[in-house]
Structure formats: C-alpha cells, structure tokens
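W.,

You were right to be curious about this one. When I first looked at the sequence I had no strong expectations either way, so I just let the prediction run and decided to look at it fresh. Below is the sequence, 143 residues in total, followed by the output.
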Amino acid sequence: MKKLILTLAVAFTTLMASAQFTVVTTYNTAAEGEDWKMSSLIDNMGIGYSLNDTWTVGLLAAGEDSLGDASYDLWGRYNMDGNMYLSVQAPTEDMMDNLTVGVGYSLSVWKGLNIEPNYSMGLKEDDNGERDGSFNLGLSYKF
C-alpha cells in the first residue's frame, strides 16, 4: 500500500511540475453613461489547466446566482492550427440548457500575455427562437 501511495504521489508531482496553468478573463463593457470599473475586468476571471498543447479545461467565475452565492462555469478550449481556438462554456447547473460555444483568436502581446477576441453563442434557442451571439474581448496569461 505504501508503494502505491508513493507511486501516485510521484506521478502527481511529475504531472504538476510540467503543468501549464492559464488565467483568463473577459472584459465586460460598461453600460452607456456608466464609468469603467475594475469589476468589468475581473468579474469573469478563471483558471485553466493545459492538458497538452491543444486542450485546456478550467473553472470560471460567473457572478452570483439568485441566492447571492458565487456561481462558476466550466470551460474548455481546443487550440487549432495557428492561434485560432474553439471554446465551450457551461454553468455547473442546467449545463446542457445553457451551453455556449465559440471561436476566437489568441494574439500574443508579451511573453505569456495574450489578447483574445472571440465570438460565442448559446446552443439552445431562447423563447423567441433566436440564438443571440456576442463578440467578446478577453485576456489570458500562461504560466
């Protein structure tokens, strides 16, 4: 049993030593007539773990739920050739009803800092039979 625990500990340490963590956020534009606030940049902040060169999975802060508790979304990214990527984001509750997919471009600014314009839209139609998409501007930093 001790050998099994030691083997798992060594394997986990090796995995974490070669890990690539990414911090991501999306900029929320202020409503017309309102001033810019720092919360516009940090409300949707999250962290991701790069499984390999193409796949990243993570957890993203998604504001507050109806009870005032913090809510989080799961997100994933598939890096295609070049700097293009496909993304998926889903809340931890009612996941399939609120699934969002998108495509984006990661523009390297300085070392691990990237500006990421992207377009995303929900998979499920709203009550009017429409799927509203949105253009977003994000930032990421790879450690």
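Here's what jumped out at me. The chain has a mean pLDDT of 81. And, maybe more interesting for your project: Strands lie at 20-27, 46-50, 55-64, 70-79, 84-91, 100-105, 107-110, 113-122, 133-142.

Coffee later to discuss?

I.
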